[in-house]
Every structure is written in structure tokens, then in C-alpha cells.
Amino acid sequence: MKVEIIAVGTEVLMGDIVNTNAQYIARMLSMLGLGTYYHSAVGDNAIRLKEMLEVGFERADIVITTGGLGPTKDDLTKEVAGEFFNEEMVLDEATLKNIEDYFKRLGRPLSDNNKKQAYFPKGSKIIPNPHGTAPGCIIEKDNKALIMLPGPPSEMKPMFKDYITPYLSKYSSGILVSTVIRLFGIGESRMEELIEDIIKEQVNPTIAPYAQKGGLILRLTSWGKTREEALDSMEPVKKLLYERLGDHIYGEGDKGLETLVCEELISQGLKVSAAESCTGGMISSSLVNYPGISQIFDEGHVTYSNAAKIKYLGVKEETLTKYGAVSRQTAYEMAEGVAKASGSDIGISTTGIAGPSGGSKDKPVGLVYIGISFKEEVYTYKINITGDRQKVRHMTTMWVFYYLLELLKKYAKIG
Amino acid sequence: MKVEIIAVGTEVLMGDIVNTNAQYIARMLSMLGLGTYYHSAVGDNAIRLKEMLEVGFERADIVITTGGLGPTKDDLTKEVAGEFFNEEMVLDEATLKNIEDYFKRLGRPLSDNNKKQAYFPKGSKIIPNPHGTAPGCIIEKDNKALIMLPGPPSEMKPMFKDYITPYLSKYSSGILVSTVIRLFGIGESRMEELIEDIIKEQVNPTIAPYAQKGGLILRLTSWGKTREEALDSMEPVKKLLYERLGDHIYGEGDKGLETLVCEELISQGLKVSAAESCTGGMISSSLVNYPGISQIFDEGHVTYSNAAKIKYLGVKEETLTKYGAVSRQTAYEMAEGVAKASGSDIGISTTGIAGPSGGSKDKPVGLVYIGISFKEEVYTYKINITGDRQKVRHMTTMWVFYYLLELLKKYAKIG
Description:
Two copies of one chain form a homodimer. By secondary structure, the first copy, chain A, is of the alpha/beta class. The first copy, chain A, has three domains: 2-171, Molybdenum Cofactor Biosythetic Enzyme, Chain A (3-Layer(aba) Sandwich), CATH 3.40.980.10; 177-252, 2-Layer Sandwich (Alpha-Beta Plaits); 257-414, CinA-like (Maf protein, Alpha-Beta Complex), CATH 3.90.950. Chain A is built from 16 helices and 17 strands. In chain A, helix 2 (20-31) packs parallel to helix 7, helix 3 packs across helix 4 and helix 11 (257-268) runs parallel beside helix 16. The first copy, chain A, starts with a strand and ends with a helix. The model of chain A has no long low-confidence stretch (mean pLDDT 92). At the A-B interface, helix 1, helix 2, strand 2, helix 3 and helix 5 of A face helix 2, strand 2, helix 3, helix 8 and strand 10 of B.
């Protein structure tokens, strides 16, 4: 079963945005054991899009398009698909109702353009879109299937996961099962050195390493006639990887460091607070992004100036003058101070030089001190991060969650 | 002159990596006034790659490939190109010497695989690669040009900039100039309605609307024999767009809301502080991401619990009990309180229901109140956002910067 992915949109073609949809869909298809043979991108142009569909269906059985389902005049995918399959466009009342309700909720007037989104080529399966106004749809004809999805990844991805994956499973012969092992605090090349031989030897499962959001990921993908068979062939390889890389593995599956930390904090009922300098609120913001965090998070502080560090955290003036704001001692007092001020079990602090300026020979850009006041103990960490201001701040946040997760696991065992 | 971009590599096709090369090349081409009509991706497969070249040259005059120039067996681009143009592969001594020197410097033995990189289809222009071992090359035949570039962006981009741009300029009859107009606080379909006639009538410049990071963008692209000519033809259309959409336009070019706000704050020398509930630090973090923000930003507070709102901001207990934490009154007192506590000219507050739970009939998920204490005045805003927790928090942050920029512009005029 051959599949082709077509991105429709001048913004992709002209390079205004990167086509991340193709990557996501290609991954999902290989999970389903379906082969992706081509990706394409074409502009918002009816003639070229139709030609693209002709080429696509000459070399593939299933074509998946992203984009061109929006309300504007240059959103043409459904209309061109209708032409291609010789099907007229018909109104779907249920979809129209959804769109009307959506705009009521927004308190915005419904435009005629939006009504356009309720028309589909006759005979289409309509795919609901809980995250936007543009539903997807599927046309099946002459042993070919055209799957049309919206362009915004925030709408396309959940639609693919919840509706298209089950739909496509009927085309897949066996099953590919995939899992990710998550690592932090080790470089990509170092990791590959440590497991080069394993990666080379492996056929089923395959092992693919990636860098992601400052951490590393090993994607294991194994094939089997059944899900169980696929999972079984994964186990011995997993065991090997843990033997070689165990110190750097913090988890498996979809949950990142932030999620795992929030889950631990809540399950252990430990209150947390943060005093941030260089991260400037990124840590609190990551915590607050977790639903239900209010159980263990009351407050956080961005103490950017020295005055704020003294006023809210009780950092000693002499500490700042003697060691500087970016120092182990200041990080220590910030973490201790914020735990005390907020009456939390855990106090987190960050202070560093995010750049681009402000660096010196002794304290270069990328130097960061982290403090974690955990119950009676205060731990401090010194890290050096290369990269721009945004990266230094992001990586600092990642390191905080990594060290905190270590402490939480240790505490869970002994506590 | 039609151009097609083809990515060669199974890692792109299977979604192991995102095809950012296509975006970069498409941008550069439009700067040169060359039209990109299609992007494609194909795996490391000789038969399908050759088919891809056939399709490509049926619909384009110039085909640019990225990838498949490496030393391994499955790097096939040059070999397939040789077949396609009926040219034998010949050794380039100069390239071989470079590769040999490169490996001497590394102190690594030269493998036969690496020698493969010194062979090119007969008659190729060879493009040096200062950042790797794989040179690029160009074959011209029958009024067609095939440009083969390496896959790694760190090698491809400098090669394109330094060698391919000058090479392509001979094909470019004029120049395309492009700019973006940035809007916020209006839906895509509503905007489309307001300027539908303009978009329809426009040929030069063309107008392309799309959504980006919670805002909207209008990309104007105009063609001219010279840069000046292109810019001139843009002006009357810009004027029209400002007449229709002026209320929602906050800027032009690359700078987003956050950057424009930070620039205004610093140039007007106004100190700012934030008291965040639902955004949980996102606003402070956006401010701190701007280098040099320390001039006007000392501190921010994440007051997530009612207790914290009372303790740090002096929000009245009766306000919280009478109106609730998510209310115009609480937002008012938070903004006023944080400005006072931090001695800032401007105090920002956010309080809302980010979801997924916590909503009610009167106060549904997505309801947010924003407060801005600006000098002597306190302004409050009520907004309703649809979407998940992350989106509610992100959009709230965008609205804060949008309202603040409005106030800063007004103040700059009267002040």
C-alpha cells in the first residue's frame, strides 16, 4: 500500500513556514506499517493542485493532503478534489451547525467564507475537527483514497491520531510498535559511541536516535503480526540499552521531564516554588502548564535585579557583593529564601549569564548556577551551556527539571 | 523560469528529520524572483529518484536536489543524475585532493567510500563545500539545469548563499521584494472579508494571508526590474490595507509583539512588572528573553493562589470572596498592586480559567481578565479564548502585549 503526502499552501511553497506536517504523518504511517513513497508541496493553485493529484495517484494508492481547507478564497483542496473525482460539492448541515456554535462561543459574526467550510465533495466521510472550524474529509473511489486534513499542526495532529490512524489500520498488514527512551545530560555523539554496535546489529526493533528539546531520544520501532509479538521482540534490546545508558535515561514514552516532575510532586504532595533570574519565569510557566498544579504550587518569583533578590528572598547583600549575583552562594540563598518565603517543601533557583552580552573571562555567557532547596537540604549545581539567549534559558529549565526529578525519585525511595 | 526542489533521503521521507532545506531554498529563490512551483521528497532509491527527476523536469526548468551526495552506498543522487542525462561518472582530481587533505587534518584513514565523493557526471560544474567532504555540482543540458546540493543544512546553506545565488541570478529577470504586515485581534476569515476585493484585484504585489502564533500575517510580494520599482508598486496597496485594517495592524516586518513592546518600554524608559496567575510566568519570561530588558524590568511574580495575591499584591480578601479570583476587580487590584510593590510605571496582571477543568456556566474555560496599570490609570480587559490550556495561556500573553503596545503608542504620542 503506497502513500503520498501532499502539502497544499503557498506559505509552505514559498518557505514562509516549514512543512512539519509531512514529518508527523510519515512517522505515523510507518507506525502503521504503511510505506510513504513521496512527499510533495504545491501552492494554492487549482490547476497545479489537480496535476499534483494526478501525479500522486499514478504512483500511490492513498494520498494525504494537508492545508487548503480554511475559509479563505485560496483554500481550494476540497473543491479541486471534487473536480478530480467528478463529485459536486454538497452542504453538510451538522458541520454548518458546529461552525455556527463555534462562532457563537467566540462572540464573533459568522461570515459566508466560514460557511464554505461546511461543503464537501459528495460521498465524503467527514472528519470532525475539535480544535478548529475546518473539518477533514475522506473520498474513496476506484480503490483510491484521498484524505484531506487541515494545515495547522495543532488541528491536523489530533485529527490524524484520533480518526485517521484507526481508519488506515484496515490497510496495514502487520503492526509496527514504537516506543521512545528518553535521555538527558549526555551528548548525541557520546551516546552513539556507547551503543553503536547495538544500533548496527539491530533489525527488529530498529533503533533511531534523535535530539529533541535539549534532550535525547531513542526511538525503538519493532514489527510483528500482533502487537504482543512486536512488543516481545523489543524487550531484550531495551534491556541492553538500559545496561549501557541507564544513568542518563529518565523515562520512556511521551512524557517529558516537566510532566514527570509535576506528576511526582503531586503524588508525593510536595509543595514547590521557584525564584528565577536568568530563566525569568520559564520554570514557573512550565509548572503552571500542568493541569492541577495548584495542589502543590502557590507562587513563583522572577527576581531579576539584585534588589529583588534581597527583598523577596532575603539574599544577603554581602553575598551579592562578595560572590556576585551569578554564583553558587547566591543560588543557594535564593533557593533557601524562596522555599521559606512561600512555605514550600522545595525551592528552586536559577541565576546565570544568558547573553549575548554580560559575559567575562571568569563568568562566560552560558554559565548558570541552579539551587534546589529540598526539605532540609540545599543542593547547588553549576552548568555551562553553549548557544543563544533563548537556548541558555531553555536548557537551564531542562536541567532544573532533570536534577529535581533525580531528587524526587531518591526521596520517594528513602522517604 | 520554474524551479522544483527535491529532497533526497529516506530520513526525510520517513519523517526522521524535518525538511528545513526546502524552506530555506524556497525563500532564497523568491528573493531572486524565481518561482518555486513544487517541493518533493523521495527516498534513497535509484528507480524512484529517477522517476522523480523525470516528473520534475516535465514541470520545471531548474531542479534543485538536496541530499544523497554522501559517502555511503545509499547516496545515489549524482549517479542517478548521470544516468538521467546519459553522462558517465568521471573522477575530479582536485576534489579528491581536497578530500585527502581533509582526512589528513582529521588524522583519519581515507576510505574508498569517501573517494566516491570525487566522482561527478561528465561536464558537471563542481561546487566547493568548505563545510564538509561532499561537493555540490550542476549539470546543464537541453535548457535544463540540475543543481545537486548536500543534505546537511550546515553545508547546504553556505553553499547556496555563496555559489548558487550568483549562479541563478542569470535566470532572474527582475527582483521580488516581500514584506509582511502584522495583525492581531481579528479572525482570518473576517480579515479576508474586509479585503477580499483587494486580494482579488491584486497582481503586483500579491497578497497572501495566513495565521501565525496567534496573530495574522499579510505577506505582500511585489515584482520589479529594480528593488525600488518593486517597493513603489507596493505602496498604494499598503495604503489601502491600512485604511481597511488599520485598527488591527500593529507592525510590519520580522518583529513580533513581544519585541516591539520591549523596544518601546526601553526607548520610553518605563519600568514594568507582572503579576501572573493563569499565564504563570509566561509574560515575565517573554520579557526576559529580550536582551537588555534589565534596564526596565526588575521583578515579576506568579501569584497562583489567592493567598499569594493577597500577600504580595495587596489584593483585598473581600474582592476575592465577592467577585472571585477570576474577575475584572481582581485583575485591577493585581495590576495596581504589582506596580506599587515593584515601584514600576507599568503593572501587568492576568487571571483566568486555563482549563481543562475549573470552568462554570458564568465563568467558562478560556475566560481571562487582564489588568494593566499604566502610570496613574488602571485598564482592565475581558477576553474569551477557545483552545487547550497551552493555547489559552499563550493567547493571553499575546493579548497582554497587544494591549500594552496600544497604550505605549498612545502614551508616546501624548507624553
